[in-house]
Amino acid sequence: MTAQLISGNEISKQIREELRQEIAGLKEKHNLVPGLVTVLVGADPASQVYVGQKEKTSKDLGIYSERHDLPANTTQADLLKLIDKLNKDPKINGILVQLPLPKHLSEAEVLYAINPKKDVDGFHPVNVGKLMIGEPDYLPCTPAGIQQLLIRTGVKIDGAEVVVVGRSNIVGKPIANILLQKAPGANATVTICHTGTKDIAFHTKRADILIVASGRPKTVTGDMVKEGVVVIDVGVNQVGMTKDGKRILAGDVDFDTVKEKAKAITPVPGGVGPMTITMLMLNTVKAAKLAAGLP
Ligand code: NAP
Questions:
Q1: What is the model's pLDDT at position 172?
Q2: What's the DSSP call for residue 227?
Q3: Sorting pLDDT into bands at 50, 70 and 90, what band is 2?
Q4: Tens of pLDDT along 233-277?
Q5: CA atoms within 13 A on the CB side of 77
Q6: Once rounded to an integer, what is the mean pLDDT over residues 95-123?
Q7: Top mutation candidate among 6, 12, 168 for ligand 1, by most atoms within 8 Å of CB
Q8: Are 140 and 121 in contact (CB under 8 A)?
Q9: Considering the domain boundaries, does residue 26 fall inside one?
Q10: Does 178 share its domain with 111?
Q11: How many domains does the chain have?
């Protein structure tokens, strides 16, 4: 079997076009412009790239974008003061604090200080809890992107056996929670594996849909999956450098052996990756509509 490639680039492009139209409509009909602010502390090169991409995508779609670059020695008090100001700013619907923060700052305290209504990352305990009880305002971006990849590829999620490898708060737990809800695009039977799981292959071999977010290349190999499985590889691992200094990336799945048995699989790069920023934009539009009392 040759697996269909699930292109996050293409699906992301579709969603961005839908958002572009929606944003234009909000401006025209309601004079409403969604606003997103990014806060970066320090000059970590990878974080600078991520923040730059978020800023560029916002502007491209017609979202008002603001960026605060703070020095690495910013104090907790100053950062909290900025968050408080942004919480009160009506132009701003979404606040994104780029992680990781420098070690002397408390990430938890900063994330908890964001008004849950502006928490477009979906990491605030209020939003985590709302997802848990099936009444989410915002889905965390990477898991929301995974669900969209499945829905828009026409994968049957209702009734499927879903196995998630990894239980982090940003990927594993929320995607498991999303797909087990009694809701459209969900209603699956979900198993979560982690380093305490006795026999991972026992579980992965039963999966109709396998989602791997372990942070380790080749966590899942071809002998660990059944024919016809749909595989979402969340991993981004640098496995080398090209001669001209570009990073060589691999996922958490052994693509070459798994693609021989899978019905469909996401590539790395170009699978889950492009969806994350797109879902951040979608959450920002949602936040603007919620703030304006629009359905
Ligand atoms: P993480 O916080 O390191 O969590 C990894 C999880 O995988 C942990 O729960 C760990 O179990 C489990 N695990 C590790 N090795 C395992 C193994 N051999 N078998 C079973 N479970 C194993 O990672 P994360 O933040 O969720 O990220 C996972 C991957 O996704 C990374 O490669 C990351 O770069 C990527 N990622 C991509 C995006 C994107 O936008 N494309 C976004 C976020 C993350 P324990 O809990 O027992 O330690």
A1: 98
A2: T
A3: confident
A4: 999 999 999 999 999 999 999 999 999 999 999 999 999 999 999
A5: 0
A6: 97
A7: 168
A8: yes
A9: no
A10: no
A11: 2
Lookup result for tokens 């992301």: 12
Residue 134 lies in a domain: no
CA 199 to chain centre: 28
* Residue found under tokens 């109709």: 208
Residue 276, class by beta-carbon neighbours within 10 Å (0-12 exposed, 13-18 middle, 19+ buried)? buried
Whether 239 is covered by a domain: the verdict is yes
- Atom number in ligand 1 closest to CA 172: 26
Question: For the domain that residue 100 is a member of, what is the CATH number?
Answer: 3.40.50.10860
- The reply to whether 47 falls in a domain is yes
The answer on 145 and 178 residing in a single domain is yes
Joined tokens for residue 122: 């979906």
What residues line ligand 1, using a CB cutoff of 6 Å? 142, 165-168, 170-172, 193-196, 200, 213-216, 219, 234-237, 252, 272-273, 276
In the predicted model, what is the mean pLDDT of residues 100-110? 97
Q: In this model, does residue 1 exceed pLDDT 80?
A: no
Domain of 112, in residue numbers: 33-116
